[in-house]
Model the fold of this input.
Amino acid sequence: MQRRRFIRLAGGGLVAAAVAGPLAACSAFEVPPGAVAAWQPPAADTELRRWLLAHALLAPNPHNMQPWLADLRTPGEITLRLDPQRLLPATDPYGRQILMGAGAFLELLLMAAAERGQRAELALFPDGEPAERLDGRAFARVRLAADAGVPRDPLFAQVLRRRTDRRAYDPARPPSVADGQALQAAAAPFALRFGLAGSTAADAPRLQAIRTIAREAWRLELTTEAPMMESMKVLRIGAAEIDRHRDGITITRPLLVALARTGLFDRSRFPAPDSQATQGQIDEFDAVTAATPAYLWLVSEGNRRAQQVDAGRAYVRVNLAGSAVGLAMHPNQQSLQEYPEVAGPYRAIHELLGAPAPKFTVQMLARVGHLPAGTAAQPPAPRRGLARQFGA
Ligand SMILES: Cc1cc2nc3c(=O)[nH]c(=O)nc-3n(C[C@H](O)[C@H](O)[C@H](O)COP(=O)(O)O)c2cc1C
Done:
């Protein structure tokens, strides 16, 4: 029954009938300006620590959950924790990726501090590292002190321009060798191995092998109930939901918005693996993957909590360096996740990248390339913003 209704909708008639009113306004299919207001530069007179946080909250982070909490009670200090309500236990059972997002947040905060002539003294996990599961302890404490001699970071200029871009890239325009070197240099402050496949013809077999693993891992994620339902819970479909939450996975595609509005997209139920909706997403990802001209990765030897934070710090720098040279980027973490159903691709990607587990951990795998000529700029992803997230 549900399938027949869906096909009729995909055919067009019923959708048009159901959404004729809201369609006229059109705004249901756009990200509302308030949801992305955080990407405007903060007012110059914003209190120093809040000015730093206003930049840090633009960090890339898994499913855009923005799980960061800041304690500002001690003057000159920022203590950072994670919101236990905003973790992703199905796709990220050990919180490795959440800590990478925390690292990205921290890196932007430290860059912003330098920008304001502040020396930042950083203590990672000041009360001890979490064990297998994340706990309520702080992931970082930052003490600030004015120091006009602190060097500014040229990557700071990209903070408001950085994006994750999930669209297809130009298959014929991989990053140049020089661009690859710029990305590598951005990650150099951290003890991680940076790799890139796609800049030279000799990379072709490895590039193809990465594509195969990425596709299989994506298929597994979409057809495994726990990770799929975790994503379904944080879908924000249409302008009103996007504006209400300002986090999660943003969907503005008219058909899905229409289905959600008319109650025909039931997000409480695991979609059948052979459903049209799931197959459509797999096909779409396959096409984007086939056109991907290059992948980059970051590998740590070991997998300590501090290394996971460093991997996030390194990734945001690579993302910013990409933005500076006009490269789009898109993490593809499915094969790096630790839930049992994806163990095959996990092993395969580690072997392929010369990083056998458990000695090594591939912390990041991301698509990288140029958008096809004439493609419009990618709008930013929603953020809750300074006041909503950290109080007025
Ligand atoms: C550790 C980490 C893992 C991520 N994994 C994925 C992923 O597998 N697929 C994806 O589409 N985006 C992934 N992202 C990107 C986030 O979804 C993105 O940063 C977030 O939605 C906010 O968007 P923005 O980066 O454009 O600000 C990841 C980001 C981080 C930091």
Notes: Residues 2-30+224-272 form one domain.
